[in-house]
Design a protein that fits this description.
heterodimer; A: about 120 residues; about 0% helix; B: six-stranded mixed sheet; globular
Chain lengths: ~120, ~110
């Protein structure tokens, strides 16, 4: 399977704990995005990488959230001191570089569903 | 602040009919608009992209229109099938500095009855 993969698919944690999610994009894609989606809402943009550089961060991304893409391949999203309001589906997407005709098309992974008790 | 609205939360139609979904936006000047399909518990899947200088795009049974004056996109599925039942999301995008930031609507849940 050459699509975007995310791990874990489900995470249940207690309030105050730290959690880390991983995203493996499509191998030739140099852009990687993180979104958050709650029930009945569309995905909300969190942050975006081009290769290893984090180019954009939403104001939704509080200081408890940090994302990395150290070698320009996989990415991790960490949430520190989780709160119940962090419960959501966390989606990762990737897209090819600007030389590709489909560079605006984002390919999404299956998501990680986080439940904070 | 920018706002994107999809006309209804749910749309129920009979198999074989044409489904028409609406996406309206305010306080934004997108360079392009995309439509995605999302099934329960899964990530969105890209369907179509239409740029600001394009009026219409087609792909098999799908058709998208984009009117930048009305700030509206219409998404049509002709000869609908029960397998088309899903949530459909529209998303606005720009080039340049904010090119990573897609703004999504809440989606319209389409149910196609046999």
């Amino acid at each position: 399977d050459t699509g975007v993969s995310q791990d874990p698919r489900h995470k249940i944690t207690k309030r105050g704990q730290n959690v880390t999610f991983r995203c493996d994009p499509i191998s030739e894609h140099n852009r990687l995005y993180w979104y958050r989606q709650t029930l009945g809402q569309g995905p909300e943009f969190l942050t975006y990488f081009q290769n290893e550089a984090q180019l954009e961060k939403s104001r939704l991304l509080s200081d408890r959230f940090s994302a990395e893409r150290p070698k320009g391949s996989f990415s991790t999203l960490e949430i520190q001191r989780t709160e119940q309001g962090d419960s959501a589906m966390y989606l990762c997407a990737s897209s090819p570089g600007v030389t590709s005709g489909s560079y605006n098309e984002q390919f999404f992974g299956p998501g990680t569903r986080l439940t904070v008790l | 602040s920018q706002k994107i609205e999809q006309n209804s939360e749910a749309l129920n139609i009979q198999e074989g009919k044409t489904a028409t979904l609406t996406c309206n936006y305010t306080n934004y000047s997108p360079a392009y608009l995309q439509w995605y399909r999302q099934d329960p518990g899964r990530g969105p899947v890209f369907l179509l992209l239409i740029r600001e200088n394009e009026k219409e795009k087609r792909k098999e049974r799908l058709k998208v229109t984009f009117d930048t004056t009305l700030k509206q996109s219409l998404f049509h599925i002709t000869a609908s099938q029960p397998a088309d039942s899903a949530t459909y999301l529209c998303a606005l995008g720009r080039y340049g500095g904010s090119q990573g930031n897609l703004i999504f609507g809440k989606g319209t849940k389409l149910s196609v009855k046999p």
